[in-house]
Amino acid sequence: MKNSFKFFSLLIVLAFLISACGTEKSEPTAVAAEAVNSGGGGKLVEYTLKTALIDGGMAYLGVGGDIDGVKNPTLSASVGDTVKITLISGNGIEHDIAFPDFNAQSEHVIEEGSQTSFEFTVDKPGNFTYVCTIPGHKEAGMSGRFEVTGNLASGSDSTTAPMDMSNHSASNASGPVVVNNPLETGADIVRDPTEIPAPITRREPETVRIDLETIEIEGQLADGTTYKYWTFNGKVPGPFYRVRVGDTIEVHLKNLTNSTMAHSVDFHAVTGPGGGAVMTQTPPGQETSFTAKAIRPGLFVYHCATPMVAQHIANGMYGLILVEPEEGLPPVDREFYVMQGEVYTNEAFGSTGLLTENIQALLDENPEYLVFNGAVGGLTEQKPLTANVGETVRIFFGVGGPNFTSSFHVIGEIFDRVYDQASLTSPPLTNVQTVSVPPGGATMVEFGLEVPGNYLLVDHALSRMQRGLSGYLIVEGPENPEIINGTITPGSGH
């Protein structure tokens, strides 16, 4: 009887223990070690994350345990725990990881395979986030959840102050303010509007090699003002390419070793996933390539398509490629290459020194600068378009954007022919004053020159002139009083 009672009691104890084990909360998935903290029973919780490009965006990938291979995994800990984070570079792009609510941040990792570790103590419960603090990376997808259970320690009246994540030192409640830093001089990034290959005279298809280098460079944005541009071949816009229908383009994209970002290229003229971008996501120091057939004529935009795509475009990574129809284009005397873009800075228009990019303004579509060919004054003081009375000119015009539609207009001229939306196989519109061109779109306009003078190139949303958006077409030659006659008055700006 006593033995039976002892056995029955043992069963009850075992059942209690099993029940207790079954209801106990599981530990974090990537815990590598646990140790009692001197401060009161917390654990050491370790996680390893690896940076990656996934599904057209950036992300952290879990390494080890139940988070292995999980995109932006949810991490967890309890109040009082010490959390150790190891970050591994998986793509050769500059990244970090921060837990802003705990004022904890890693060092940057750049070279593929490099890693860094840091620790912080969890001092408050709640649902928080971890992010990459490199501008644009959080918006490109590098953000995850950090869940903390438990309660504040008894008698505790303070917790870690969160990090300042605004990164808008030149902004106030009303927006960016003018900053008068010492004047800076940077590289000339303005693409000369005459840098255009000659018309194609051959009629048989060929393979045309396109060499693009992605170059991150401090360039001259305005007088005394510089900006860190991301470029194709060191200029904005990138090179103008010219092929014919039926040609095969062989694209080689090389990302310089001193780049901080991966880059790529999407040709709107290419039929296939990503326009080539899926084949050219290129880390610093590497080169990629692909071939594609030009099967449709037209004037097409190309641009970087690495996340966050809008950031890469706003920093200068766009250009045009012309696919001529089999019969070619009608002859003209001069051709010009002009593209419109936006620059988003923390500092207000008119600031001096090295300006910094403003990701929030980019997301809000609120640029400080709007420019032709990359810079304020690029096509007025530096490299204006020039021609002569009696000549016919053609302007290949595109909008890199990434956000604003252009109402392209040449003040004092009427476009004889407009190839609307850059359709070269449709009959052109004639006698057009202004043409609308969306972001990622283009047009081709042609007109004759009858009168000398300075003609302003503008976006007819004319407030944008006050943010840098204007160019000159300077026409020389004899006066033509039969078309216009009068005395020029000062102050017109033409």
What does this structure look like?
This protein has 494 residues and is mostly beta strands. It contains 3 helices and 31 strands. Helices cover 7% and strands 37% of the residues. The strands form 8 sheets. It has a 6-stranded mixed β-sheet with strand order 22-20-24-29-26-27. Strand 1 and strand 2 (57-63) form a beta hairpin. It is elongated. The N and C termini lie far apart (114 Å).
Write a compact overview of the structure shown.
This protein has three helices and 31 strands. The protein is mostly beta strands.
Gap from first CA to last CA? 114 Å
Structural domain count: 2
Strand content: 35-45%
* Main sheet overview: 6 strands, mixed
Structural class: mainly beta
Unreliable sequence segments: 1-39
Fourth-tier CATH superfamily name of the largest domain: Cupredoxins -  blue copper proteins
Apparent shape: elongated
| CATH-scheme architecture of the largest domain | Sandwich
Largest beta sheet: what is the strand line-up?
22-20-24-29-26-27
C-alpha Rg, in Å? 30 Å
Percentage of helical residues?
A: under 10%
CATH class bucket of the largest domain: Mainly Beta
Instruction: Give the total of beta strands.
Output: 31
Mean model confidence by pLDDT: 90
Remind me, CATH topology of the largest domain?
Immunoglobulin-like
Total helical elements? 3
What would the keywords be for this entry?
31 strands; elongated; mainly beta; single chain; Immunoglobulin-like
Write the layout of secondary structure elements.
Elements: H1 2-23, E1 44-54, E2 57-63, E3 75-78, E4 82-88, E5 98-99, E6 104-105, E7 115-121, E8 126-131, E9 143-149, E10 171-172, E11 175-176, E12 207-222, E13 225-232, E14 241-244, E15 248-255, E16 266-267, E17 287-293, E18 298-303, H2 309-314, E19 318-324, E20 334-343, E21 353-355, H3 359-363, E22 369-372, E23 385-388, E24 392-401, E25 406-411, E26 415-419, E27 429-432, E28 434-437, E29 442-448, E30 453-459, E31 471-476
Parallel strand pairs: 1-4, 3-9, 12-15, 13-21, 14-19, 20-24, 23-31
Antiparallel strand pairs: 1-2, 4-7, 5-6, 8-9, 10-11, 12-13, 15-17, 16-18, 18-19, 20-22, 24-29, 25-28, 25-30, 26-27, 26-29, 30-31
